[in-house]
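As noted in the main text, all predictions were made from sequence alone. Below is one such record, for 4Fe-4S ferredoxin iron-sulfur binding domain protein.
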Amino acid sequence: MSRVIIREERCKGCLLCTLVCPVDMLEQADRPNRQGYKVIRVKNQDMSVCKGCGFCAEICPDEVFVVYRSKKDRAGAENLEEEHV
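Prediction:
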């Protein structure tokens, strides 16, 4: 299963990631980070909808996201691979 790690301490709440996510899984949280910005979060904490496209990481000016894409190995098992975008 693809997923993203959100580094909240880097988020400035610009919401650019919410505009490019093709599955509309990101939203602004009610709580702020240490700098006082309302951070981004996954809606309903449902990471299963993530496709691993990396659009959030590409558009983010503050490198908030680390994207892990699912990669099938030869045996058919699913492995996660870190994608740096």
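Residues 3-83 form a domain with the Alpha-Beta Plaits fold (CATH 3.30.70.20). Strands lie at 3-6, 26-32, 38-42, 65-72, 78-83. These features were considered when defining construct boundaries for the mutagenesis experiments described in Section 2.9.
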